[in-house]
Every structure is written in structure tokens, then in C-alpha cells.
Write a structure and sequence with these properties.
The protein is 30% helix and 23% strand. It has 13 helices and 21 strands.
């Protein structure tokens, strides 16, 4: 029996819409299924609603390095569709882009809705059929293979073990025959594209359903966790700085071999430095956010699993401790009546100056000239490394993306097709890449969608 559709795309986010539009552009009959009543629900909140569509990085080696060690798999993908292609696609539909700090690319409209409108127009141009409010509950495998069905919600807990294990090498490539929907219908097609998203921001519909389907098929998966997510810090001094943003700061992770009772004190005198990262940092009511915290979050979580760790925030990265000590010494010699807090306010924000004094155990109202050598040293050490405890990461509801998912080795990135299932393509947040913030997640969506749509649009034959 002939399949109802040439291509069925599951998920109406950026990757899914791009794949659907591209396959239709190549003359295929395409159906896109979206469980929400609106398309691109998560896309609309990216970049604070402005939508950081990609990054202007032009060197491919630099680009793939932004996706962690697994990024080596992405060379062939970005050779086919890079950041420049993303901008050209948007421009084709009348949407110009601009480059901001750190190469972040935004639409000139500063509106994520305008980006979604481009994708809707692109799908409309090719005649994609869109069915909203349609939830897929499982994949139906051809012939003797069993159907994968959505488990109970508890089984989708990111902390739960994820089954894995690829099919045996001697096992013939399998095919998907149909998808099953919550309405009880089976929709058949020749090619299927999974673009359901990971587990980040579940209120947008990203609940990780597809991970269960893929695990049932034996696709190798890695533990799914929140990524690009703010860091919890219990220290009061951090919370007292809520709303303060540092355009350039350093975040250090240290470990202690002793049983530390707090985030500062003699317990950390022989601490080892495990990680150093630099960038923009934002203090919040729960801890740390901003690009620096988001990009370092996953690494810090991994380090915390085998170490007793604390964080140091340096608001003056690159400053030399000896030079800072001389600055205070000179201030004592030339203007010793000046208050310590007032001196520090020339270097950092007033609230931060008070926090530094509190951590160092000095009174900001005291005169610089009264500082003992020990107090002066404590002040310098604290200023260039304000200690705080690591309280874990915020949950999936605050994460930009999730990490974990399909092992990249299971995917042919020339087509985005799973190696062991001949007509199933996997995109976006379903893939295990620890990418940084700055437009890299969306670039993987555009590129994966374009390449999968091109491959599915070129595929011949159908289910019988």
C-alpha cells in the first residue's frame, strides 16, 4: 500500500519547520505534526524574545569547537549549511540580520516572531500541510519489529537511567512505517523526521517524548540533563547583588581535599583550580546567570560529582594580585584617610565593594591607612576571587537546552539519518551536544533541518 505522505515531520520548532520546508521545496508531499496550537512556541522565547539566530563565526573548526568534544561530528553538517547560509535563508524571505557582541546574530527586527514568520512562509511556499494540536505517541516499525509507545511520564525523568544499545552489526537496517497519534490514527510515510526537542522548557512542549521511542528502538542514548542553565548559589552576598551584571568576569572552580564546612576560610588554603572561564555574568535572586554561568554549568556539574567544590567570582579578570596590593599600599601612603569602601568603589560597583569588604572581614568605613598587612592581603585575595558555594543547577524549566540524548556516532551527519534505521532522521535538541550560548543551538537546528529536508526530499521509493 502506498504511503499517505512522502515525508512526515514531528515537531514544529525551527529544525522541524526547516526540514519540512526544504523537503517540500524538493517536490515532496510533506506533513508536519505539532502538538501545540502554535508553531515555534520555544523559538519565540529564545534570546529573550529577540532570537539569537546563529553566530557569525566563519571558521568551521572554531564553530564545531563550540559544541564540546562531540563537535567533531558536525564538520560535514556545517560544510553543507553554515551560519552564512542561515542568514541568506532569512534574507531570502526579507528578514535582514545584524551582528552583535561575541558574534551573536539577531534579526534587525529584534523579534523572534519575525523569524518564525519566515519559516511559516517557507513552508507555505512549498505547500507543507501543517496539523497543529496533534500529539504523536509512538513510532510503528515495519514488518516484525515492535512498535515504540510513549511510556508513563515518570519514565521521562531526566535523572532516570536511559536504556541504550545499538542493534547488532549483522542486523539489517530497519524502517519506520508510520507514526501513531493520540487520536489513535496511524499516519504512514516514506521518510520520518524527529524534531520534537529535548527536555528543556517543558511548558513549551519539550518533554522528551522521543527519547523513550528511540530507546525502545535500541538507539544509543546518553543521560538527558539540563544544559545552558543558571547556577544555584546559596551565599547571601551573591543574592545581595541581584540584578548586577558584569560585562567581563572570571568564574573559577576549586576543589578541596578536606571536608570544607563553608565556601571560604582555611579549609580552602590548599585548594586546586579545576576550571576557569571568562565572560558576561549576571547575579540573580537564586545565584548566577548570564553567558558565563550558562556555558560553564554542565562542566561544573560534572566536576561536582567527584569533588568538593566551590566557585570564585573575579570581577577584575586579568588583574595582578601584586599590582592590586601596591594600589592599596599607595592609597594608604598618599590618601590614607580615604575609606576602604570608597577606594574599592573606584574598581567595582558599590554593592560589590561592600560584599568584598564583608567577605574579607573589613569595615568599608575604616580608613585605608588602618589596614594591617594581613587585612590588606585578605582584601586583595577576596577582590580577585569572591568565594561562594555551588548549590547545583536550576531545573529543565530554566534551561535553554538539554544535554545528553542520541549519541552523535549513531547519526550520519551528511543526511541526519540514523545509521540503523534507514528512513528516520533526528534533529536539534535530541542530539547529545554540549553547545555554548551565542546562537549555536539554533545554528544546529537550521543546518540539521536543511540537510535532513534535502535528504528526505531526495529519497525515492515508499512503504508498501
Amino acid at each position: 500500500m502506498k504511503a499517505q505522505w512522502d515525508v512526515v515531520v514531528i515537531g514544529g520548532g525551527p529544525a522541524g519547520m526547516t526540514a519540512a520546508a526544504r523537503a517540500a521545496e524538493r517536490g515532496r508531499r510533506v506533513l508536519l505534526l505539532e502538538q501545540n496550537d502554535t508553531l515555534g512556541k520555544k523559538l519565540l522565547i529564545t534570546g529573550g524574545g529577540r532570537c539569537n539566530v546563529t553566530n557569525a563565526t566563519t571558521d568551521r573548526h572554531t564553530l564545531v569547537s563550540r559544541y564540546g568534544p562531540q563537535g567533531v561530528h558536525l564538520h560535514s553538517l556545517f560544510a553543507r549549511f553554515g551560519p552564512g547560509d542561515t542568514r541568506e535563508l532569512l534574507q531570502r524571505f526579507g528578514l535582514e540580520t545584524k551582528v552583535e557582541a561575541e558574534g551573536r546574530v539577531f534579526p534587525v527586527t529584534d523579534s523572534a516572531a519575525s523569524v518564525r514568520d519566515v519559516l511559516v512562509a517557507y513552508m507555505g511556499e512549498g505547500g507543507v500541510t501543517v496539523r497543529r494540536g496533534c500529539r504523536v505517541t509512538g513510532l510503528v516499525v515495519e514488518a516484525a519489529a515492535r512498535e515504540s509507545a510513549a511510556p508513563e511520564p515518570a519514565a521521562l525523568d531526566p535523572a532516570a537511567p536511559v536504556p541504550s544499545g545499538a542493534p547488532r552489526p549483522d542486523q539489517p537496517a530497519r524502517k519506520i512505517r508510520a507514526v501513531r497519534t493520540s487520536r489513535g490514527e496511524e499516519i504512514t510515510a516514506s521518510e520520518f523526521v524527529l524534531a520534537t526537542g529535548g527536555t528543556a522548557r517543558p511548558e513549551t512542549g519539550s518533554r522528551g517524548d522521543a527519547f523513550a521511542w528511540l530507546a525502545e528502538l535500541g538507539v544509543p542514548l546518553r543521560l538527558v540533563e539540563s544544559a545552558l542553565v543558571p547556577i544555584r548559589v546559596p551565599d547571601q552576598w551573591v543574592r545581595s547583588l541581584q540584578g548586577l551584571a558584569l560585562t567581563d568576569a572570571e568564574l573559577v572552580v576549586q576543589s578541596s581535599s578536606t571536608e570544607a564546612t563553608s565556601s571560604h576560610g582555611t579549609d580552602w588554603s590548599n585548594a586546586r583550580r579545576l576550571l576557569t572561564r571568562r565572560g558576561k555574568l549576571l547575579f540573580t535572586h537564586f545565584g548566577l546567570s548570564g553567558p558565563l554561568a550558562l556555558n560553564a554549568a554542565s562542566e561544573i556539574r560534572e566536576l561536582s560529582r567527584g569533588n568538593r567544590i566551590r566557585l570564585l567570582v573575579n570581577p577584575l579578570p586579568g588583574s595582578d594580585p601584586a599590582a592590586m596590593d601596591r594600589l592599596i599600599t599607595d592609597a594608604a601612603a598618599t590618601g590614607g584617610k580615604r575609606g576602604i569602601g570608597k577606594l574599592l568603589r573606584d574598581l567595582v560597583a558599590p554593592r560589590m565593594a561592600d560584599a568584598v569588604c564583608g567577605l574579607a572581614g573589613v569595615d568599608p568605613a575604616d580608613r585605608v591607612a588602618t589596614l594591617s598587612r594581613g587585612a590588606r592581603r585578605a582584601l586583595v585575595v577576596t577582590l580577585l576571587g569572591m568565594p561562594c558555594a555551588f548549590g547545583g543547577l536550576m531545573g529543565q524549566d530554566k534551561a535553554i537546552v538539554s544535554s545528553g540524548g542520541v549519541d552523535p556516532a549513531a547519526v550520519d551527519f551528511r543526511t541526519m539519518r540514523l545509521r540503523e534505521i534507514s528512513n528516520l532522521y533526528v534533529l536539534g535538541d535530541l542530539l547529545d551536544f554540549n553547545r555554548q550560548s551565542g546562537g549555536y543551538s539554533l545554528q544546529m537546528c537550521w543546518a540539521g533541518g536543511w540537510v535532513a529536508g534535502s535528504a528526505a526530499g531526495s529519497a525515492t521509493g515508499g512503504n508498501t
